[in-house]
Design brief:
The chain is an alpha/beta fold. It contains 11 helices and 8 strands. The radius of gyration is 17 Å and the shape is globular.
């Protein structure tokens, strides 16, 4: 792996849970803990702006999910329910009974699953640019074409080569952003270089392969429609996300006790990178 990017005030540790070594970045101290879960194609460094912004009042932990960043990348285990269990196991190893949660993209999806299956472990949840688990086929079908890119990623040969080729990830980061000037070469390489190892490239493919082959159809058939989100939740969503369109966010109202949505004009998918000041402001307010 490449060297860990440096952020002032952030330290690093590894925690072994469920037979996997998980990397954690940490800032701040105290009993008020915020756990941050990144998305694809990123890792803990997605939170390089948010961690210092919260560290004066929270202990902030940024976890590298199974297969990402500096965590182990085993050959299997990329079902999102299983990855949610990873998170709970890491919290158990750290002795943390209840935390506040922030999640983006896949980390955001896993965050919703955690809020449903282990509501007692999370006091608040800030979700960033992710769909909730109650999207109906009627809402999804007109936008299905937007997700064809996933079938490129999940191809075992092509997806693997794209991740290791060095040019695909930069195009994803810049192309998926409305505020493109935030991406300098150093930041882009911090993410793209993390997929140069064969294990981590394979893990990225598995994230999408498992989802599309095993998980998406049960979700579309209502897997989560009988389950309720009781954790107070705030979804902050870049309105110019090319794939996760705002129209797809409808339908959560009858499944969540306390959830609100804010759309951010002029912002794409990578909201924590594109609008770090706004994300920090909303996080400080909501997680206080």
């Amino acid at each position: 792996m490449t060297e860990l990017p440096q952020v002032d005030g952030v330290s690093h540790r590894w925690v072994r849970a469920r037979g996997v070594n998980f990397h954690l970045a940490e800032a701040g101290e105290g009993d008020d803990v915020v756990l941050c879960l990144h998305g694809w194609p990123q890792h803990w460094y997605e939170w390089r702006h948010l961690m210092p912004a919260l560290a004066d009042r929270h202990r902030v932990l940024a976890l590298d999910l199974r297969g990402f960043g500096w965590s182990d990348a085993p050959r299997d285990g990329y079902e999102k329910e299983n990855m949610a269990d990873d998170v709970l196991a890491v919290l158990d190893e750290l002795g943390l009974e209840r935390v506040k949660l922030v999640g983006h993209d896949w980390g955001g999806w896993i965050g919703f699953l955690l809020g449903i299956k282990a509501a007692d472990r999370f006091s608040r949840y800030l979700a960033l640019n992710v769909l909730h688990p109650w999207v109906t086929p009627r809402n999804f079908v007109p936008h299905a074409w937007r997700f064809l890119y996933q079938w490129v990623i999940l191809s075992p040969g092509l997806g693997y080569r794209l991740h290791r080729g060095g040019r695909f990830i930069p195009k994803v980061l810049v192309g998926g952003s409305a505020v493109k000037e935030v991406w300098d070469e150093e930041t882009i390489h911090a993410f793209s270089d993390s997929f140069m190892t064969s294990d981590h490239a394979r893990a990225a493919v598995q994230m999408y392969r498992v989802f599309n082959i095993k998980e998406v159809w049960p979700i579309m058939r209502g897997r989560y429609f009988g389950q309720r989100l009781t954790v107070p939740t705030f979804l902050l969503h870049g309105a110019d996300d090319l794939a996760l369109r705002p129209e797809l966010l409808a339908g959560y109202e009858s499944h969540a006790d306390e959830m609100k949505v804010e759309l951010v004009p002029g912002c794409g998918h990578f909201i924590a990178d594109e609008r770090p000041d706004l994300v920090a402001e909303r996080a400080r307010e909501f997680l206080a």
